[in-house]
Design a protein that fits this description.
single chain, about 190 residues, mainly alpha, three-stranded mixed β-sheet, 3 strands, about 60% helix, globular
Length: about 190
């Protein structure tokens, strides 16, 4: 059985994902780059704004009592999805925010947060549920990989190779490795 990772390991994983995002965005030119603004940019903005929804309330030495995370109340700043430079600046700020969180004591990652979200077909319902920074970091990593999977499909259609693990869930990578090992052991 695998041991549970530390909060620092989850911060490092999220930081790795943001480095991958940086590498992806850095391949694109300013706003005239239709490939960025047309397809990639909206995904990049969405990922960035989700991370900002957590790092904003958690920008202190530890989350404030009563901190609220609301992924639905994003700014939806269109310059992030049309200007790679702006996206790169925002990702750099997020990496810094994650590194600040890495200095927290482990107990701070279990501090209560309120997660607010909208539901219903027209967004007419409001939900509140308890969460923690650790849980939300796990969500953000999964959410980011999900969008990377969509981006990877688009890149493959354009003949672009983003690497074997880009957009692939860690559990899938581990499962495939175990399958290969089992097949090799059976040979």
């Amino acid at each position: 059985m695998k041991l549970f990772a530390t909060p620092r390991a989850l911060i490092d994983y999220n930081t790795l994902l943001l480095h991958q995002l940086t590498a992806l965005v850095a391949q694109h030119r300013p706003a005239q780059d239709g490939a960025f603004a047309g397809f990639l940019g909206p995904h990049v903005r969405h990922i960035i704004e989700h991370y900002e929804a957590l790092t904003g309330p958690c920008a202190q030495a530890a989350p404030a009592i009563g901190a609220v995370v609301n992924y639905d109340a994003r700014k939806r700043d269109l310059s992030v999805q049309t200007e790679p430079r702006v996206a790169l600046e925002r990702v750099a700020a997020l990496r810094s925010a994650l590194q600040a969180m890495a200095a927290w004591p482990d107990a701070a990652f279990a501090a209560p947060l309120a997660l607010h979200s909208q539901g219903g077909e027209m967004g007419e319902l409001c939900f509140a549920s308890p969460s923690t920074p650790l849980r939300e970091l796990a969500f953000l990593a999964s959410h980011c990989v999900h969008h990377f999977a969509i981006i990877k499909l688009h890149a493959q259609q354009k003949g672009q190779d983003l690497g074997p693990y880009f957009g692939k869930a860690p559990a899938t990578v581990a499962h495939e490795a175990a399958q290969r090992e089992a097949a090799q052991a059976g040979s």
